[in-house]
Amino acid sequence: MPDGPLAGARILVTGASSGIGEATARVLATRGARLAAAGRNRSALAELGEATGAQALPGDLLDPAEARATVRRALDALGGLDVVVSNAGIGWAGPFDEMTPADIDRLLDLNLRATAHLVHAALPALRHSGGRLVLVGSIAGMLGVPGEAWYSATKAGLAGFADALRAEVTPAGVGVTLVTPGVVATRFFDRRNRGYDRQRPRPVAAERLAEALVAAVEGGRDELVYPGWLRLPARLHGGLPGLYRALARRFASPPTALRSA
User: Fold this and answer.
1) For the structural domain made of 10-251, what CATH number should be given?
2) The pTM is what?
3) Average pLDDT in the 103-128 region?
4) 56 contacts 12 by C-beta, under 8 angstroms
5) If DSSP codes are grouped into helix, strand and coil, which group holds residue 260?
6) Which entry of 151, 196, 226, 244 is annotated as an active-site residue?
């Protein structure tokens, strides 16, 4: 049996029915964690449960009450929480003025509102256990990606939330890890209105990101940017934004002909 730092840890993972969330749950299972896996796809969650022993918590976090209900069900299933991985999110690609009001609200509701309610509901349990919160953001939140303006804004908001919350809850013994991935090869792009259509950066495997995410939790790290080379443009953007924008315009990989998701 695993005997590392996460052996026996009680962990809730949202967005666990596919992609980064599913890969993360599978890696956590190899570390001996006790899992509650939340997501919209019941059959996928059942399959994940059979493979990992995770307690399946089907539900749609776009429902305003679902985030808090998910935490309650996870607490009932696990008897407490040591780690919460808030991973559920959606994207949208294209000119901002082509978004509908419903598109705008859906991204805001899932990427930020649902996360806030999930964290708010989980914090008492994490304070009790001295646990850790993991928020999965995006490099778009650091750099701002043309054609993904509102998605970038929601992920930037998540990054700001992580920074401010960390300062609030660290004295109470709760860690906050912000995970900032680049392009990850998942069905995320199939579910938004347009698929991934750029030549670079090339997508990385969700399993590789999941291994890095779990290592960051085990090491108590506050931040993870993956793959690591993305730290360079992020630092350039923060320190020399004018130079960053000039280089981005010069070297940006133009999208191929847009295809329907």
Assistant:
1) 3.40.50.720
2) 0.88
3) 97
4) no
5) strand
6) 151
